[in-house]
């Protein structure tokens, strides 16, 4: 393999093919975190734009790694700063959002939250909850992922 730079034609051809695949096969990727405190309680958020309680998280932006997106989302939604790299629990197809959406779920056990975040335009409420006392409106997917983590089960394929 040559170390020579690609020709202009090769670079253009590469960009055209990349653009074609982005336009014809776009995929969205989200990240979420099951954040557990020292008492085993899980951190959940209630958004202003969707019903129920969910794990914190959001979309991976272009040019951003999944871990960078998770770090950003945890700070934005929970004022949570990671103290170690989280463990990837599973990778899911989220057909409820679109035919092309996927979610990477991480487990976080070492973190710092100096103060709970104040409600804002995106987040209505946040809190740590005992797994046997989750809010009634906790989403089905959140409950299913907690069961997987608690029981050491193989992650499902679908969110």
Overview of this protein structure:
This protein is an alpha+beta fold. It has a single domain (27-151), classed as Nucleoside Triphosphate Pyrophosphohydrolase. Helix content is 26%, strand content 28%. The protein has helices at 8-24, 66-78, 140-151; strands spanning 28-35, 42-47, 53-54, 57-59, 81-82, 87-93, 101-108, 111-112, 123-129. The protein has a 4-stranded mixed beta sheet with strand order 4-1-7-6. The longest helix has 17 residues, at 8-24. The chain is globular, with a radius of gyration of 19 Å. The relative contact order is 0.21. The mean pLDDT is 90.
Question: Briefly, what is this?
Answer:
This protein is an alpha+beta fold. It has 3 helices and 9 strands; from the N terminus they run H-E-E-E-E-H-E-E-E-E-E-H.
What CATH architecture label applies?
Answer: Alpha-Beta Complex
Radius of gyration: 19 Å
Q: For the largest sheet, list the strands in their spatial order.
A: 4-1-7-6
Q: What is the number of independent domains?
A: 1
Mean of all residue-level pLDDT scores: 90
Give the helix proportion (percent range).
Answer: 25-40%
Which parts are unreliable, with pLDDT below 50 for 5 consecutive residues or more?
none
What structural class do the secondary elements suggest?
alpha+beta
Annotation field: number of helices = 3
Oligomer: single chain
Extended strand count: 9
Overall, the morphology is: globular
Q: How far do the termini sit from each other?
A: 42 Å
SSE topology string: HEEEEHEEEEEH
Strand residues, percent:
25-35%
Which superfamily, in CATH terms, is the homologous superfamily? Nucleoside Triphosphate Pyrophosphohydrolase
Briefly note the CATH topology name. Nucleoside Triphosphate Pyrophosphohydrolase
CATH class division: Alpha Beta
* Main β-sheet description: 4 strands, mixed
């Amino acid at each position: 393999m040559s170390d020579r730079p690609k020709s202009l034609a090769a670079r253009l051809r590469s960009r055209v093919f990349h653009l074609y695949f982005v336009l014809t096969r776009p995929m969205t990727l989200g990240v979420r975190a099951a954040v557990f405190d020292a008492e085993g309680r899980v951190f959940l958020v209630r958004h202003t734009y969707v019903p129920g309680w969910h794990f914190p998280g959001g979309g991976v932006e272009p040019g951003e790694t999944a871990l960078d997106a998770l770090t950003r989302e945890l700070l934005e939604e929970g004022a949570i700063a990671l103290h170690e790299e989280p463990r990837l629990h599973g990778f899911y197809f989220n057909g409820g959002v679109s035919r092309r959406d996927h979610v990477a779920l991480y487990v976080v056990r070492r973190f710092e939250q100096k103060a709970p975040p104040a409600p804002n335009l995106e987040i209505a409420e946040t809190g740590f909850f005992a797994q046997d006392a989750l809010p009634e409106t906790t989403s089905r997917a959140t409950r299913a992922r907690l069961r997987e983590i608690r029981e050491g089960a193989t992650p499902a394929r679908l969110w």
